[in-house]
Design a protein that fits this description.
Layout: H1 2-25, H2 31-62, H3 67-71, E1 88-92, E2 96-97, E3 104-110, E4 116-118, E5 123-127, E6 132-134, E7 148-150, E8 155-160, H4 162-166, E9 172-182, E10 196-203
Parallel strand pairs: 2-10
Antiparallel strand pairs: 1-3, 3-8, 4-7, 4-9, 5-6, 5-9, 9-10
């Protein structure tokens, strides 16, 4: 009888030992660690997406076209056919200037019905006793591309640096020749007929 009980105890001991070893060899997964890893991965992905969107918006703002920097680079006077209207005049502030005068101040006046636009460009003409002739400039005449609006009924003073482009003027009769465009005609093309105005003065 004792031998039988000892045999049963030995068999149970072996079964318990075998079960313990099987548990030791097959570990269960760690769900908390895996979950933490998944959360970290999701957070990283979300951060990456946010950074990409910000970069795209910044690039779009930076590369947006600036039609203003592109239009300002075009010549002011380069234009389209129009009908020359009356009412625009320019007048030198004085009839006579002394020798050594460097600048001629001129009053622009618009008594017409349309807003006009004029710039810094001009030429100088001299009376040769029978007709007006173009005065000889010192060199190439370069002007800023800039426009001045003059609405109907308005006046504006503008000064022309005659000595800068033509040197010291000897005594004689001169006139400043300037042109303008009608604001409604912009943009203009190479066939544009520029209305001309003149301001006479004398150097004595």
């Amino acid at each position: 009888m004792k031998k039988r009980w000892l045999s049963l105890i030995l068999i149970l001991s072996c079964l318990v030992a075998a079960a313990f070893n099987a548990c030791a060899d097959n570990k269960l997964p760690e769900p908390e660690t895996t979950a933490a890893t998944e959360i970290t991965t999701t957070t990283t992905a979300a951060t990456t997406t946010t950074e990409s969107t910000t970069t795209a918006l910044t690039t779009t703002e930076t590369t947006a076209p600036t039609t203003t920097t592109a239009r300002s680079s075009e010549p002011l006077m380069s234009g389209r056919t129009t009908t020359i209207a009356d009412g625009v005049t320019i007048t030198a502030q004085r009839d006579t200037y002394p020798t050594g005068t460097t600048h001629i101040p001129v009053n622009w006046r618009n008594d017409g019905k349309e807003t006009i636009l004029f710039g810094d460009s001009f030429t100088l003409q001299v009376w040769d006793g029978g007709a007006w002739a173009e005065a000889e400039p010192l060199g190439r005449m370069v002007f800023l591309t800039i426009g001045y609006l003059l609405a109907p009924g308005e006046s504006r003073e503008h000064t022309y640096p005659v000595e800068e482009y033509y040197g010291s003027l000897p005594p004689g009769r001169y006139r400043i020749a300037a042109h303008y465009i009608y604001d409604k005609d912009r943009p203009i093309n190479k066939y544009y007929i520029f209305p001309m105005v003149y301001a006479e003065f004398a150097i004595k």
